[in-house]
C-alpha cells in the first residue's frame, strides 16, 4: 500500500537480498514510485496549512479549559472578559443553540462544560477578539468557581465509583467465549501487562478558520480527517441543517489519529456565527495535548495454556481499557482488542473479557492500531514466557502455532484473506543478524545512552526478540463502508474528485496512479476536499486505499469505456480488444493506433462511481461474529543492546517482513513501514503522556519525549509478501498500522532476551531493564 512518512525521526530502510522494491520503472501507473504532488510545496514551505490561513476582518479565538480533572461548576462570570478592549464576544454552554453533545462514536461530550468538568483541559468557554493575545488574556479573565471533587483515575475503581457521566462508567463489556472454557493445558504461564498513554503528537498543532456565510451558515477550514462527520456534528451543535455548514479540508500535517478534535472546530463555528466575522484559532502545543484523543492506556491479565510440546490450547485474558472522560471510539477499540487477543495464532479455546470504562483521565480515542497494539504487547510477552518455560527458542514456539488462511479467529470468523504468517516469521528469523559493536573508544556512540552515556561496554547485553502482529482493514462490526469518486477527462488533463483526505497515507498519489494506468492520461489533478462532495468516510484502517481507491478505479473504468466505445464500434470490435498505454490507444491486431487526446476530440468525459465492500456484523453476546472485512499481518525481529546496570536501551535494528497484498508505490510503501516502526519504537521506549491524579504533566514536546533520528534504528525490510486479497481493489492491504502494532512487542521481546526480566509495561522503564542478577546484588 502506498504512503508517505509521517512518523518521527529519519530512519533507514535497507532491503535485504531477494526483496524486490524497485524505485524507478515506467513514468506512471500502479507499482511505480510516483512522488507526491504536494512534495515540493511542503519542502518549500508554501503548503497551505490551517495555521497559515487568513481572511479580511479576521478575529482570533481562545478557549478556556478546566485546570481540574473533576469538579462541579458553581458559576461562570464572563463580565471582566467581555469588558476588555478588543473583545467581541464570549460564549459558554448557554450560547450553544443546538445539541450540546457530540463525539465520533457516541455523542456524550458537551461543546462546553455546563455543570461539571470531567477531565483536565475540558473546554468551558471561548473568546473572539481582534488580537490573539487579547483573546488569551480575556479567556484567562473568565472567573469560574469550582467545587473540586476527587477524580477517579484508576480504571479498576471505575466499576464501583459513582457515575462520572449520565451514561454511566461502563462503556462496553465484551465477554468472548470460544471452544471449551474448561480446558487446561499441561503448561500454563501468566502475565500482567500495562500499556501507557501514547499521544499522536502531530507535527503541527490543531488550527482552523471559521467564516460565516450570507445564508446564516458557516464554513470551517481545518485539517479534518473525516469532514462529513465533522460537518454533521457541527450542524447539530449550531442548530443548523447540514447543508448550511461546509467543512473545507486544509493541508494535514501528518495524521496518526483523528487529526482534528471537534473541541477546536465547534467553538470556532459558534464564534463566527455570533460575531459575523471570520475567526481563527491556532492551538498552542499545550492545548493540542489537552484537546485531542490519545491511545487507550490498558491493563491486561493473561493466562496461556499449552501442551508439553508448546502447542497452544487455551488463552484466558482480561482487558481493561481506560477511555478517559468520554466514550469516543472506545467501543471499537475494545472490539479490536478482544478479537485479536490471541494474536495470529491458532487457539482452539479462549475465554476473554474486555471492558472499556470512563475515568477522569484525558479522553482516549482512535490512534493508529488502537486495541490491536495493546494486546500484541501482551500475547507476545506470553509467547516469550511459554518459550522460556519449555526451553524453546522464541521464534520456534511461534512457528508451532502460527495462523494460516482458513483458520478461525476466536470470534468464530474464518480467515479468508491471505495469511502468510509463517512465511513472514521465517523471513525475519533467517535474515542475517547485525554485527556486534567493537569494544573500542571510537565506537562508544553505539552504547545505550549515546556518546555521553555513563555506561560501560562490559555491562551491555544484546538481545534478539520477535513479534507477530495483526490488524483489521476498514471499519468493523457492521460499519457501512462506502466512498464515492468522480473522474473527469478534458483535453490532456484528468481530474479526480473524492472526499478522501490525504493524511500522509498517499491516497492522492494513488488516485493519480489509478487514473494514469486506466486512462493513459499523465496529467492527473486531485481536487481539494470539502463537504460539498459526496462522503468518503474517515481516513483510518487503510480505508482510502481500498474504498476510495476502489471508487476512483470504477469511475476511471467507466470513463475508459466511454472513450473506447466509439472506436470499438467504428472498427467492429469490443472495447476489451483495445488497450491504453502511455497515452496511446491500440488494438490487439495493430490496425488501430491513435492517441487519447485524438480520441477525446475536444469532448469532456466523466463518471461517478461508488465502492462498498461486503458487509460485516457486530459481535454477539458471546463475542462471536464476522466482524472484519480483512486482516493484515507483520513479523518483526528486534535486536537491542541493553546496559543491564543502568537500564538504558538502544535498538540496533528492526527487521521487518510484512503482508502487503500488492505494492502500489514502492518508495511510499517503504516510508509508511519506516514511519510505523518508528512510532511503535516511541511507544515501546519513551512515549507516555503522564498524569497525576488526572492532571496532565508537562503537556509539551519537552516533557513528552518523541523518537528522533538519533533514536531510530536501522530498519531492514527483508520481505514483502504480495499475495493479493481477491476482494480488495488492487489486492492491497494497509501498510502503516501493522508495524506500529508489532514493533513495541518486538522491542520488549528483545529486552527480555537481553536481561531475563519479564518486561510487562510499555514504555519500558530503565529500572525494568536492569538485569535480575544486578538487582539481587543491590
UniProtKB/TrEMBL annotation:
Q: Which InterPro entries match?
A: Ald_Oxase/Xan_DH_a/b (IPR000674), Ald_Oxase/Xan_DH_a/b_sf (IPR036856), Ald_Oxase/xanthine_DH-like (IPR016208), AldOxase/xan_DH_MoCoBD1 (IPR008274), AldOxase/xan_DH_MoCoBD2 (IPR046867), AldOxase/xan_DH_Mopterin-bd_sf (IPR037165)
- Quote the protein name from its UniProt record: Xanthine dehydrogenase family protein molybdopterin-binding subunit
Q: Name one Pfam family in it.
A: Ald_Xan_dh_C
> Which residues does the UniProt record annotate as the domain Aldehyde oxidase/xanthine dehydrogenase a/b hammerhead?
44-150
Positions with biased composition (Low complexity): 7-19
Q: Where is this region: Disordered?
A: 1-41
Q: State the source organism's domain of life.
A: Bacteria
Amino acid at each position: 500500500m502506498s504512503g508517505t512518512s509521517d512518523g518521527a525521526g529519519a530512519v533507514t530502510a535497507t532491503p535485504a537480498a531477494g526483496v524486490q522494491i524497485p524505485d524507478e520503472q515506467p513514468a506512471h501507473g500502479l507499482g511505480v514510485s510516483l512522488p507526491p504532488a504536494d512534495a515540493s510545496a511542503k519542502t518549500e514551505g508554501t503548503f497551505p496549512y490551517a495555521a497559515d490561513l487568513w481572511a479580511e476582518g479576521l478575529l482570533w479565538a481562545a478557549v478556556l479549559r478546566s485546570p481540574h480533572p473533576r469538579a462541579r461548576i458553581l458559576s461562570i462570570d464572563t463580565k471582566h472578559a467581555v469588558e476588555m478592549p478588543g473583545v467581541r464576544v464570549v460564549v459558554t454552554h448557554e450560547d450553544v443553540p443546538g445539541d450540546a453533545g457530540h463525539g465520533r462514536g457516541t455523542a456524550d461530550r458537551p461543546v462546553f462544560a455546563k455543570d461539571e468538568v470531567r477531565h483536565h483541559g475540558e473546554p468551558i468557554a471561548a473568546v473572539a477578539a481582534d488580537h490573539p493575545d487579547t483573546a488569551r488574556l480575556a479567556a484567562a479573565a473568565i472567573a469560574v468557581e469550582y467545587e473540586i471533587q476527587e477524580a477517579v483515575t484508576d480504571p479498576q475503581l471505575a466499576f464501583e465509583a459513582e457515575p462520572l457521566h449520565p451514561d454511566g462508567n461502563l462503556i462496553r463489556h465484551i465477554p468472548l467465549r470460544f471452544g471449551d472454557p474448561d480446558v487446561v493445558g499441561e503448561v500454563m504461564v501468566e502475565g500482567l501487562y500495562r500499556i501507557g498513554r501514547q499521544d499522536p503528537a502531530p507535527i503541527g498543532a490543531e488550527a482552523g478558520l471559521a467564516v460565516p456565510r450570507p445564508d446564516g451558515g458557516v464554513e470551517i477550514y481545518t485539517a479534518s480527517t473525516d469532514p462529513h462527520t465533522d460537518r454533521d456534528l457541527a450542524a447539530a451543535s449550531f442548530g443548523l441543517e447540514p447543508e448550511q455548514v461546509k467543512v473545507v479540508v486544509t493541508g494535514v500535517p501528518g495524521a496518526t489519529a483523528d487529526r482534528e478534535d471537534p473541541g477546536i472546530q465547534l467553538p470556532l463555528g459558534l464564534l463566527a456565527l455570533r460575531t459575523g466575522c471570520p475567526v481563527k484559532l491556532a492551538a498552542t502545543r499545550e492545548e493540542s495535548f489537552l484537546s485531542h484523543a490519545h491511545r487507550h492506556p490498558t491493563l491486561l491479565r493473561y493466562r496461556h495454556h499449552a501442551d508439553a510440546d508448546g502447542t497452544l490450547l487455551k488463552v484466558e485474558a482480561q482487558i481493561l481499557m481506560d477511555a478517559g472522560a468520554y466514550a469516543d471510539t472506545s467501543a471499537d477499540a475494545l472490539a479490536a482488542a478482544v478479537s485479536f487477543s490471541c494474536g495470529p495464532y491458532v487457539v482452539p479455546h479462549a475465554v476473554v473479557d474486555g471492558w472499556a470504562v470512563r475515568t477522569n483521565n484525558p479522553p482516549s480515542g482512535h490512534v493508529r492500531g488502537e486495541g490491536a497494539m495493546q494486546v500484541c504487547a501482551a500475547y507476545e510477552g506470553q509467547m516469550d514466557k511459554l518459550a522460556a518455560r519449555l526451553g524453546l527458542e522464541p521464534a520456534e514456539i511461534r512457528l508451532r502455532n502460527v495462523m494460516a488462511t482458513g483458520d478461525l479467529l476466536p470470534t468464530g470468523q474464518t480467515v479468508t484473506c491471505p495469511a502468510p504468517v509463517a512465511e513472514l516469521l521465517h523471513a525475519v528469523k533467517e535474515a542475517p543478524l547485525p554485527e556486534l559493536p567493537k569494544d573500542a573508544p571510537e565506537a562508544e556512540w553505539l552504547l545505550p545512552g549515546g556518546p555521553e552515556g555513563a555506561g560501560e561496554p562490559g555491562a551491555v547485553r544484546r538481545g534478539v526478540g520477535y513479534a507477530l502482529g495483526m490488524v483489521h482493514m476498514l471499519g468493523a462490526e457492521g460499519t457501512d463502508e462506502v466512498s464515492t469518486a468522480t473522474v473527469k477527462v478534458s483535453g490532456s488533463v484528468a481530474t479526480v474528485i473524492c472526499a478522501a483526505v490525504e493524511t500522509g497515507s498517499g491516497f492522492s498519489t494513488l488516485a493519480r496512479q489509478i487514473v494514469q494506468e486506466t486512462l493513459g492520461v499523465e496529467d492527473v489533478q486531485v481536487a481539494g476536499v470539502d463537504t460539498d462532495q459526496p462522503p468518503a468516510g474517515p481516513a483510518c484502517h487503510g480505508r482510502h486505499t481500498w474504498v476510495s481507491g476502489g471508487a476512483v478505479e470504477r469511475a476511471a473504468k467507466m470513463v475508459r469505456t466511454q472513450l473506447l466505445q466509439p472506436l470499438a464500434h467504428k472498427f467492429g470490435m469490443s472495447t476489451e480488444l483495445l488497450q491504453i498505454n502511455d497515452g496511446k490507444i491500440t488494438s490487439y491486431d495493430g490496425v488501430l493506433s491513435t492517441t487519447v487526446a485524438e480520441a477525446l476530440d475536444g469532448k469532456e468525459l466523466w463518471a461517478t462511481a461508488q465502492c462498498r465492500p461486503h458487509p460485516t456484523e457486530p459481535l454477539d453476546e458471546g463475542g462471536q461474529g464476522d466482524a472484519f472485512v480483512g486482516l493484515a499481518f507483520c513479523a518483526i525481529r528486534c535486536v537491542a543492546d541493553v546496559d543491564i546496570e543502568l537500564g538504558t536501551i538502544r535498538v540496533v535494528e528492526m527487521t521487518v517482513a510484512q503482508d502487503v497484498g500488492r505494492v502500489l508505490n514502492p518508495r511510499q510503501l517503504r516510508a509508511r513501514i519506516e514511519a510505523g516502526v518508528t512510532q511503535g519504537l516511541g511507544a515501546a521506549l519513551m512515549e507516555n503522556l503522564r498524569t497525576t491524579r488526572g492532571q496532565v504533566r508537562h503537556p509539551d514536546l519537552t516533557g513528552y519525549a518523541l523518537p528522533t533520528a538519533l533514536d531510530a534504528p536501522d530498519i531492514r525490510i527483508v520481505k514483502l509478501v504480495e499475495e493479493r486479497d481477491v476482494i480488495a481493489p488492487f489486492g492491497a492491504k494497509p501498510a502503516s498500522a501493522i508495524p506500529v502494532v508489532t514493533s513495541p512487542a518486538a522491542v520488549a521481546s528483545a529486552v527480555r532476551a537481553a536481561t531475563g526480566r519479564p518486561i510487562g509495561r510499555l514504555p519500558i522503564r530503565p529500572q525494568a531493564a536492569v538485569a535480575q542478577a544486578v538487582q539481587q546484588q543491590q
